[in-house]
Specification:
The chain has about 425 residues and is of the alpha/beta class. It has 2 domains: about 160 residues, no CATH class; about 190 residues, no CATH class. About 45% of the residues lie in helices and about 10% in strands. The strands form 4 sheets. It has a 4-stranded mixed β-sheet, with helices on both faces. The protein has a two-stranded parallel sheet with strand order 1-10. It starts with a helix and ends with a strand.
Amino acid sequence: MSELEFRARVLAAIGANATETEELLAYNRSVFERDNFKAPLQFPLQSEPHVAVWQEYVTEAKTKGTFEILKHALVQLRFPIQAGISQTEAYRAATRKGLSPEFTSGACTPRKGIEPNQTTGLILQQPEQLQLTIHDSLVGAIPVLLTKNREDFVSLVRAITKRNEPVEIPDSMGACMVAGYNNWDRIRRYREGLSLEFNSGTRDDACTPRQQWSADNLDSSELAWSVEFKRLIARKELYQDRFIILSDGFYSNVKPEKLGLTAAEWRRLSLTIRLEHECTHYFTRRVFNSMRNNLLDEFIADYRGIVAATGAYKADWFLRFLGLESFPHYREGGRLQNYRGQPPLSDGAFKILQKLVKVAAENLEDFERNYGERLRTIKNQTLMLMALTYLTIEELASSQASNLIKQAIEQLQSQTLSQVALLEET
């Protein structure tokens, strides 16, 4: 029996009709690429190139403040949250061409028609509480931006990922993985090698050149740069960044009393779950070239987050996070509706998906109960994460889920274990 036939039978067994089955077979299709083991993988992976400049931001932020440093590095933070702002000439010039609202990309002087206006940039309620760190994950270090103010989290997500437009951010959302971010600060550094100093939160007029592209090319005119820029575009590692934006609120907007925890304890656990959840997305992106707003991705990421925070997988926690704590009733506002897909699943298919999630979570908890102690080493947790990407939600919801997970782990051990190693086992 093929995988597709097996999945279709699982769907039919829980009540999906032909149309719903077709929808869910498409939605739950795994797109994780599994041919990345041609070269040995040694964890943690080498950090991506953008981490170096973010480490500089961290160092500078210690004396000048995180928000002040990032306002000069990330152009979106120099604009307010305002309907229609993404269509203005100044915003397009800043985000598409790297022309600063205060300075041109080629000199430390204001650009005509784009005047400095510090009062209309992004407004945070508690800018002094903004924290920037570099977190070491299994797939390399990654910058993490943490705010303890919910309004500030929403503002940052809107600015960085929604083009400063006042779009709705679900209350259940407390973290955001920013991927493919075009960092014009890195492009400017590449072009001019400018070391920009700050004095009391403002950019100094003096520019100190380094030996970068302009120093190595005597003809550094606009024409020469346009030719070089076309070459640069193909090398995304030189200008595209990945980083995480976190809030420290209750995970999935679940109140601590619902889990029998104190507010302080749940806030601490929430931060761990949230960080490890996002790092799991980073893991699948670097290892399997996929990171989607999809239920399977969330299933795997929450698995890792819950285990990292509590030492064991808790199906009831996961179901509550999604809004399924009173199954078959779905609680409006639960996270599951954030992953309904594009185009969204029909109401009927969404109901079937809820059934799949419940059974899959309970099957995973059963597997953890039987094999959890063996999975607590870093190497085995890594193999477990990888194994889950080899399966679909239908397979995880089937009566054969435990055997399928074991088979996936064994397959990884036999085919890729020699290529999957960790620098340090703990």
